[in-house]
Amino acid sequence: MDDADSANPQLLAWVKEWLDLARERNSKGVTTYKNAYESLKACPITFEHPAQLQQLKGFGPKLCERLEDNLKKYCQQNGLPMPPHPKSRKATASAGGNDAEGSSKPAKKARKPKAYVPAFRSGAFALVIGLSTLDEDASVGMTKAELIEVAQNHCDSSFTAPSDPTKFYTAWNSMKTLVQKELVYERGRPLRRYALTDEGWEVAKRIKETDQWQSETGGVREPTSAQPTIPSFQPEPASRPRSPSIEAAEPTRVPSEYQNVVSDGPTIPDDSSLPTFTPIRLPPGSFSVHLLLDVREVRAKTDRDYMQEELAKQGAKPIMRSMELGDAQWIAKCHDPNLLAAQGAEGDEIVLDWIVERKRLDDLIGSIKDGRFHEQKFRLKRSGVKKVIYIIEEITMDPASIQRYEEAVRSAIASTQVVNGYFVKKTSKMDDTIRYLARMTKMLKRTYEGKPLNVIPTRVLTSQNYIPLLSHLRESTPSSGWYITYPAFSSLASKSESMTLRDVFLKMLMTTRGVTGERALEIQKRWKTPYEFVKAFEACGTGEQGLKRKRDLVLGQTSHLVGRKKFTKAMSQKIAEVWGDA
């Protein structure tokens, strides 16, 4: 049985964590923890309080107290009420039993259940406050991204990054509690939206009546029927016809300063349409190799410069920059800043054939779940960089989460290596990643600084001819390397980020599990827009026969495909569920 399917998954995860630690230290407690772990995993009873575990093999008072301490911290972090100790419940039950027997003692007044109010500045607290910025009668809820944006200021923990690198949960995990308590309802597919229920609005009002909230807001009481603070959440007019909605999965990026360096250009039907040019030749000794590091690569919000400082200590001081693609890459920087300009190019940096995408294990799991993983690989392929390195940091995580997604992670890594041909480097922590990047920097300095570089002039490049031109040059002159300037590379990468309707459609398709970039392209070849795709499902009709036609639509239209592009029946049915309400 999977740990996640246990009757007590959270308690089991803590016991498993201590068992693993005892094994690592080769301590005498291994047997005790092993007995406790196996008996709790096999037990079908759901326990409300750790003290109840003493009836199981391996659980003594000390172990139960440790679990109780962990549970208290967990409840405080997630704004949950701590379950009452079984002894206090027994005392209450005993008193009730004596009354039933006609005892002369006066009956104790039953304690009224305390109204639920999340802990101040906890995840649940912030989510309720965030959702209360909507109008109480609004019919449109908030997406996860929208809600996090308004809720984060009201929470001491992050909604996107675990407070402890060894744990998997964030403040967003409190949403599950709010849904279970029926304070929040969620709807929508594939994009979930959240809103407060009537009970949720009552909790929001109770929060705003507390002294802590009053002091935080300067003593100003908010009207309960306030207008939404975010205009985009207003419901659409009823007279507006319903059409498939298209929403970006990520916040809009600030336009790149290099966005217009490379023009779009016409499509390239064949190699005869490719431009001819004389390359810019950089002789050995005219440049040096440097590591570029994205400014968002930090260890923690409170330790933003750690990676940069540690790389500098190891002789690989990085150039920090907001990168359009990847988390790190290597460039050749000209000693003479006017060398490229004198030959009609821009800047003084050349992009080399190496780029790094760094993923912590929890981030990798998250990107697999929401489809970002396939999208990122798709963009890396379109970048034209030959050597792509995926660094996977296998940090310590909740054992239940690891077991739940172990197969998906293994499959994603294998696909990255075999299908995409990318190199996967596994490290155990950030320090190992830093050492690897430092070694790579030294190796690439030795490789490139002693040979000439052929640079493609930016004036001949367009976003349409870049990949065909690069492929043609690599096939015709395999012994030579072909490179472009950093401004040109960033311009091309930013164009791949600014989405056309086609790009949005592909992203929407890839949110369905199993639909890779290649499969999404096959669908887009047959149905050019989301509107056409939805209409194709509508044309299948209704009833049992219509339902069957919807489920077989994609499979029937792509039955000739083989290999990685092939669709399974299950995939076709899943797509029909999302796009055709099948």
From TrEMBL:
It is an enzyme of class 3 (hydrolase). It comes from the Eukaryota. One of its GO terms (cellular component) is nucleus. GO terms for molecular function: 3'-flap endonuclease activity; crossover junction DNA endonuclease activity; DNA binding; metal ion binding. Its EC number is 3.1.22.-. Residues 290-396 form the ERCC4 domain. Its main location: nucleus. It is found in: Nucleus. Belongs to the XPF family. Interacts with EME1 to form a DNA structure-specific endonuclease with substrate preference for branched DNA structures with a 5'-end at the branch nick. Typical substrates include 3'-flap structures, D-loops, replication forks and nicked Holliday junctions. May be required in mitosis for the processing of stalled or collapsed replication fork intermediates. May be required in meiosis for the repair of meiosis-specific double strand breaks subsequent to single-end invasion (SEI). This is Crossover junction endonuclease MUS81.
